[in-house]
Model the fold of this input.
Amino acid sequence: MTAFAVIQAIVIGIVVLLASVSAFRKLLPKTATRVQARMSASLNAPSQARWLRALGQRMQPKAATGSCGDGCGSCGSCGPKPVGNQPDVQPLHFRPRPRP
Done:
C-alpha cells in the first residue's frame, strides 16, 4: 500500500465520519443532545485531568431557554403564521384514479 493510498483512506474515513455525525445530529436531535450531554458529563468528572474537564465544559449542550429563538417548538407558537383567511389546517382531497 502506498503512502497516497493510506492518506486517501484516512481523508475518506474522516469525511464519512463527519457526514454521519452531521446526519445523526440532524435526524435525531434529542438523542444527539443526550449523547453529547453524557459525553460531556463523563469528561467533566472531578477525577479527570484539567484539560479534559475544560473540553467537557465546552462540549456541554446548550439548554433550551424557552424563547422563540432556541427552536424547541414545545409551545407551538414558533413557525410560519397563516396568511390572510387561510385556516391552520387544510383538508386533503382524494380523487379516484382515471380509468384507462
In short: Residues 82 and 88 are 6 Å apart (CA to CA). Residues 3-59 form one domain. Helices lie at 3-27, 29-43, 50-59. DSSP finds three helices and no strands in the chain.
